[in-house]
Structures are given as structure tokens and as C-alpha cells.
Design brief:
- The chain is an all-alpha fold.
- It folds into two domains: 105 residues, Helix-hairpin-Helix base-excision DNA repair enzymes (C-terminal) (Endonuclease Iii, domain 2); 121 residues, Endonuclease III, domain 1.
- Helices cover 56% and strands 0% of the residues.
- The chain is built from twelve helices and no strands.
- The structure holds iron/sulfur cluster.
- The site of iron/sulfur cluster has 14 residues, from helix 9 and helix 12.
Length: 241
Amino acid sequence: MARRDDWKAPPPRRLRAILERLRRRYGRPSTVVHGAPIDELVLTVLSQNTSDRNRDVAYERLRDRFPSLEAVREAPVEEIEEAIRPGGLAVTKAPRIQRILDAITATPAPAGIGSGEPGAMDLGWMADAPLDAARDYLCELPGVGRKTAACVLLFSYGRHDVPVDTHVHRVGTRLGLFREGASLEECHDEMLRLSRGADPIESHVALIRHGRRTCHARGPRCDECPLLRLCPYGRAARRSG
Ligand code: SF4
């Protein structure tokens, strides 16, 4: 793995070369944007410390039991807990969801952006607002950081941001895309720079797929990896036998 003192920021064409090889291995991701940023925020809270399946069950139960997200915001917290229990950590997640919904209600869009009613839960203005303004707004919401903000912007509206989750972080560090020891904030900035000229959804999904299927946290399968020639970590591991 590149040491902190010999790492050089790679050019964007390096990420494009990686994505091309991953596309040949796994195919091109076919994610569609859904235009529902507040649902995406709720989903990211529900996804903490659980599987995708349990997250989805919790989300479906929540949406089945409450007619709207406004109703979720106003409900007794115990009812939210009960609805999302299959997702685990319901006692923590239920008030967290309501705090986010309260904050969206209380926080208008930045001056000059958006035309929604004051107090409405509507983030539709993020579809075409300046990206930095939309990201800053999201990062001011309780418990929302760069990764969640990037998920909302990318999967709701296809805005150019790339969430760096644990797989993207590990795979990207091994491939030398990120400086060893870089903070998640720094990695997000790097991914924004590197993914210029690339599809941001593919940049995110392809690295996650590779992390799940080949570049495991323990025991990466470097011998069958299509990225071995591009990977300082894999080449060093091979040299050391
Ligand atoms: S060569 Fe090994 S460490 Fe590098 S990306 Fe492939 S599996 Fe991961």
C-alpha cells in the first residue's frame, strides 16, 4: 500500500481505467435515480448496522404504517420504533429519523434557491441547485455527513457526488486512489476530483461490487483480480509471497 510520504494524487484517467476493467468483469450498473431525497435520508438511517434486506423491510413497514413522511414526523416515537424494529437499533434510529424530518421542516432552502412553502418538507430544489449549497444544507442536518449527503444527491437526482462507504474507502486506498490514512472527508473530495468525466453512479457502485466480490477486507483475491496490474497493494502482496 502507498505510504503517506510517497503517495501522489492520481489523475482522473486512472479511475476511468479502473472502471473500464470492472465493467468488463461485473457489467455496467443500472441504478436509476428516484427523485425522493427525504426517503433516501430515511433509508440511510435505517441502513446503519444492518443488512440491505432488513433495512428494506423496516422501510416498507414504516411507509405502510404511515400515510406520509409528515405523519412519521408527528407520530409518537414508540410507533416509529415498532414499525422499524426489523432493521435493528430501533430505539436509536426512530428519534434520529424524526430529528432529521424536524430539521428539514425548520430549515428553509438557502436564500435565492427553491420556492417551497415555509415549513414544508420539500427538498426538490436540490435537483438543480448549486451542488455545494445542496451538500452544505444536507451536512447541517443532524447526524448527516458527507457520505449520506452524497447518497441523497446521487441517488435522488443523479447529481455529481460519490459516496465513499467502507468498501469504496478500502478498495480506493489499496488502489492508491486515496492517501493512506486519509479522512473520509478527504476521500470524498478526491472522489469528486477523480470522477470528473466518469459516471458518478458507476464510480460508486463498481467499487462497492468489487469490494464485496473480490477485494474483501480480509483475504482480497488478488490472483483473480482484473485490477492487479493497477494496484500497488496487490502487487506488493504478490511480491512478498
Ligand atoms: S489487486 Fe487485490 S488489493 Fe488490489 S484491488 Fe484487486 S483484490 Fe484488491
